[in-house]
UniProtKB/TrEMBL annotation:
The keyword Magnesium applies. Pathway: Nucleotide-sugar biosynthesis; UDP-N-acetyl-alpha-D-glucosamine biosynthesis; N-acetyl-alpha-D-glucosamine 1-phosphate from alpha-D-glucosamine 6-phosphate (route I): step 2/2. Its EC number is 5.4.2.3. It catalyses: N-acetyl-alpha-D-glucosamine 1-phosphate = N-acetyl-D-glucosamine 6-phosphate. It comes from the Eukaryota. This is Phosphoacetylglucosamine mutase. Its cofactor is Mg(2+). Keywords: Isomerase, Magnesium, Metal-binding, Phosphoprotein. Belongs to the phosphohexose mutase family. It comes from Coptis chinensis. Substrate binds at residues 391-393, 522-526, 531. The active site is at residue 67. Interconverts GlcNAc-6-P and GlcNAc-1-P.
């Protein structure tokens, strides 16, 4: 590193002193903490993004969001050149620079890292970083910190893309690096055009319009998603969407008793919904619109919901894709021959309801499990020609390999005039439309919602019909607040506790007491809590199991008052 670069880094870093006595970690999805202590972290991640851009000679994304966390929190995550999450190899460096208190150590860490990674800085290299933020009030100050971090690397330029959903920013980074023009309107156009394409391909005779829901009410979590959906829905024909909890003045607080995380964990309707909404199809986005769950309120007696979570969205997508692949492999007199067998797989985590896994197995699907965090699921799904991944919390998408896309394109381009309009041809067109609609970079509630709606229209299904695909096993999720979440470590895709020693045996003996019992604990990667999951054959049993496991966890972690 030359003197000019070193001086620039030292000067700018002095304006962002790190908080004392706090240890931050890149976590499940970037750095998250109370917004008041994050300026230095965001500044430093700005530097990291510039280094990543120089190293990869590509545009990198920086998203300022704390997603489902409370409004006083904020966070920052990086989108790599493909639009996916930051390569895990760089996470230790992110942790190290975020936590370096002494300015000399900070400069030393950067010097060693650029040498090890062979990143030429301080010279003629250029770097371009797209910045996005959600609607949190702290976003503006943190955006400035990120810009200053970026501009303290010679040749690096920050481009402010404004207030966006997290998946929009990831989509833009991916698209830009594919050599295409990037704008919010091109995102909306791609989604609405591919949705229209799927709707146009619905066989007219099969459309049982009387059974589909008349409208969809969407809870925007008082975050950025509601406002963006209002824009998107103007371009979408054939759907009636009413958006609530858009975050407009007086509508409520971000993620407070609203949004996908609240709805999925509490299994009650969000604020802004009432007994007037009984029986209507509803959906919830989270604070930065990368998660989606559906629900309906079955009865006016209470606001309990019938939840259609990420597992059921995954099941609906899987069913539809399998139907298209089956149609493609049929050798009609169409001139189209399915000359390669598409490797289809699904990826879940330990949170997947046992009933969903059983259902997917019965469909004959290849299922793999990873730890929580889309970065793990995404990586696994990318190993398939078509990889569908979803967390039960509604975070997921469908990945198509390049080879699969070219094969589908060749299937649609090479057909003889007689085969146009055949079931095979339409199936190939549908799969291509799905690959354009569903975000290939990261889970995206808006594109996921349009795909779910298109499939429901195609199948003539209401949400009630969808909900009956299988019956969820009763489950309960709890969290225990801790000062140090690293006190718990796990193995086997988070199904086994390694530390504290002896806790797993205690969980096993509790679980054995309940028919169909299953339980695990894991440290959150986004909050200072330990999460507890339990399922069993009855709700009462799932509740009791979760509570007793939580008690054991507190006891092993020394949190019980003596
Ligand atoms: C993030 C991750 C998800 C993860 C969730 C909860 O979601 O992207 O993959 O499931 O955090 O993580 P944890 O249980 O570790 O706190 P989001 O929507 O908050 O970005």
């Amino acid at each position: 590193m030359n003197e000019k670069q070193r001086t620039l880094l030292i000067e700018s870093a002095s304006r962002f002193p790190p908080p004392q006595g706090v240890k931050l970690s890149y976590g499940t999805s970037g750095f998250r903490a109370d917004a008041s202590i994050l300026s230095s972290t965001v500044f430093r991640v700005g530097i990291l993004a510039a280094l990543r851009s120089i190293k990869t000679k590509s545009v990198i994304g920086l998203m300022i969001t704390a997603s489902h966390n409370q409004v006083s929190d904020n966070g920052i995550k990086i989108a790599d050149p493909t639009g996916g999450m930051l390569t895990q190899d760089w996470e230790p460096f992110a942790d190290a620079i975020a936590n370096a208190i002494d300015p000399k150590d900070f400069i030393q860490l950067i010097t060693e890292f650029v040498k090890k990674e062979d990143i030429p800085i301080g010279g003629v290299q250029s770097a371009e970083i797209y910045l996005g933020r959600d609607t949190r009030p702290s976003g503006e100050v943190l955006l400035e910190a990120a810009k200053q971090g970026i501009s303290s690397v010679v040749g690096a330029v920050a481009i402010d893309m404004g207030i966006l959903t997290t998946p929009q920013l990831h989509w833009m980074v991916r698209r830009k690096n594919m050599g295409m023009k990037v704008s919010e309107s091109s995102y909306f156009e791609q989604l609405s055009n591919s949705f229209r394409c799927l709707v146009d391909l619905i066989p007219k005779e099969d459309t049982v319009t009387s059974k589909v829901d008349e409208k969809l009410i969407v809870d925007g979590a008082n975050g950025v998603g509601g406002e963006k959906l209002e824009e998107l829905k103007k371009l979408v024909d054939g759907l009636i969407i009413e958006v609530r909890n858009t975050g407009k003045e007086g509508e409520g607080i971000l993620n407070e008793r609203v949004g996908a995380d609240f709805v999925q964990k509490e299994k009650v309707a969000p604020l802004g919904f009432s007994s007037n909404d009984v029986g209507i199809s509803c959906a919830s986005l989270d604070g930065d619109a990368d998660r989606l769950v559906y629900f309906h309120i079955p009865s006016i007696c209470n606001m309990k919901i019938d939840l259609v979570d990420g597992d059921k969205i995954l099941s609906l997508y899987s069913l539809f894709i399998m139907e298209q692949l089956r149609a493609l492999s049929k050798k009609e007199n169409s001139g189209m021959i399915a000359d390669y067998s598409v490797k289809l797989g699904v990826v879940q985590t330990a949170y997947a309801n046992g009933a969903s896994t059983e259902y997917l197995k019965q469909l004959g699907l290849d299922i793999v499990f990873t730890p929580t965090g889309v970065k793990y699921l995404h990586e696994k799904a990318a190993e398939y020609d078509i990889g569908i991944y979803f967390e039960a919390n509604g975070h997921g998408t469908i990945l198509f390999s390049e080879h699969c896309i070219s094969w589908l394109e060749s299937r649609t381009n090479e057909v003889s005039s007689t085969s146009k309009g055949s079931e095979q041809h339409k199936a190939a067109l549908r799969l291509l439309a799905i690959s354009n609609l569903i975000n290939q970079a990261v889970g995206d509630a808006l594109s996921g919602l349009l795909l779910a709606e298109a499939i429901l229209l195609h199948k003539g299904w209401s949400i009630k019909r969808w909900a009956t695909l299988y019956q969820d096993l009763p489950s309960r999720q709890l969290k225990v607040k801790v000062a140090d979440r690293t006190a718990v470590t796990t193995a086997n895709a988070e199904t086994v506790v390694v530390k504290p020693s002896g806790l797993q045996e205690a969980i096993n003996s509790e679980t054995a007491k309940f028919p169909l019992g299953r339980s695990f604990i894991r440290p959150s990667g986004t909050e200072d809590v330990i999460r507890i999951y339990a399922e069993a054959s009855t709700q009462e049993a799932a509740d009791t199991l979760a509570e007793s496991v939580a008690e054991h966890a507190k006891c092993f972690l020394g949190l019980n008052k003596s």
